[in-house]
Structure formats: structure tokens, C-alpha cells
Amino acid sequence: MNYLKLDFLKVSGTGNDFIVVMNLKNEYSHNWSNLARIICGRHLSVGADGLVVLEKSPKADARMRIFNPDGSEAEMCGNAARCSARVLVKEEITSSGDVTLETLAGIITAKVKGNNVKIKMTKPENFRDGISVNIGGIDYKGSFINTGVPHAVFFMDDIDKIELVSIGSRIRSHRQFQPAGANVNFVKVLRNDSISIRTYERGVEDETYACGTGAVASSMVGYLKGLLKGRKIKVLTKGGELTVEIEDVNGEIKNVYLESPVEIIYSAKYLGE
To answer: How many domains is the chain partitioned into structurally?
Structure first.
């Protein structure tokens, strides 16, 4: 029997876990979409929120491709970018802690210090406030923003009682967000500089322990709506805490950063048919 042999690292960014494959020398030529559907399955395979493939790039330290468990390829993923940067430094692909990544959403820059990784996000765009989605007779009123990938954001007083998978899956594919769909975030303001969030991720089609672009989307919407005053916002997720930093110059958003520790859990070899 011929086996597919694949060296990989299992990496976690605040509970958002990924299978990371170094393919800078084009050692592997797999159908990554199909492999993601197999290898990301929990209980039946390695299990992860996504498969990250790092390839050679003519304009960055590496090209990051991120494949969701359903096989779709995402434009960007904040925590996957942070995990990728940590791996590239560990593997000594860069001579310093400064890393650049080519993504479908643009070039992402990162700074790695030990296990802490801070990335500069692409500039958020397409902010729309006052969206309303009716699910089961209930109007969910919120906002939309693209932080590399599309996000719907809903602020509410109690996010623990929301049936996230049931409601999130229906909002995710609502006609307002077609054809691409949207990730769905339910957010509670804790203080004027901190929030807690729960995120339903398209492609994963489930709640994840953390979502980097979702943390940024929720922070940005809260900041733009005046619900958050601080420019350094603590974001609490099921997987831990992230920090979103907003650089605002005279009312214009110049840069947005995402920061939190990244843990390399283990390295292994996958043998599949």
C-alpha cells in the first residue's frame, strides 16, 4: 500500500489550533483541499481548525495558504498567521523575529519574541452598521466588517446563552452575506477596553476557541461605534486572551495589530492512504 507521508507541526494560537506544513522547497504536491477535509477531522484524524501550508514566496518570507476543515481555502486567518510566523522563526527561516507572510488578503508582517507573536493586520474595510438578520422570528441587529475575511458582529448582554452553532450557521449563510458568507461573532462589552466574544467560523462550520480576525472585527466595530474607548483592547475567548491594538490618527485608522502567545504543541509525521 502506498502511503502519503507528511511532516507537520501542531500549533495553537489561543486555542485556535492548526496543522502546519513546511513546503518551502516544494517537497509535497498534494491536493491540499482534500487533505484538509481528512486530516482536520477531530476524533477520526489529527484534528484542527485548519491546515496551513507554507510555500515559497517571491515577495515575503513565505506564502501562507490556509485550508478550512471543509476543504475551502480562506483568504486570511489572524491566528494562523501568528502560528506561521512562530514556526518560521523556530525553523530559522528568518534571521530575526521579523516575519512577512504573503496571503490572499495581502502581505502580513509579524514580530516574534519568544512565544509571543504580534501581527499587523490588513486594513479593515467595508464597515456597515445597522444590519439586521431575522432568524427564527428574532431580529439580530449588528454590523459587518472585513478584516481580511468577512465578519458579522452582534453586541449583546449575554453571549453564554446563545445557541451559537444553530444561530451562527444560519447567519453565516444569510443572503445579506452571499456569495462568500461571513463569520459570525457575538460580543459582550466588559469594560471600555475589553470584550468577550464567541465566534462561529465559516469553513470550520463550528464554534472555535478563538478567532484572530474575529477578535479584530469585534474590537474594530466596538471602537467605531463608540462602545470601546481604549486603543488597546483585551479580547477574551474560550481559548484565552488576545490583544487588539488600534492606531488611530485624528480619527483615521492607520494600523491594527493582533497579539497573543503561540504554542508549538508537537511535531509528527502523517501517514495516510
So the answer is: 2
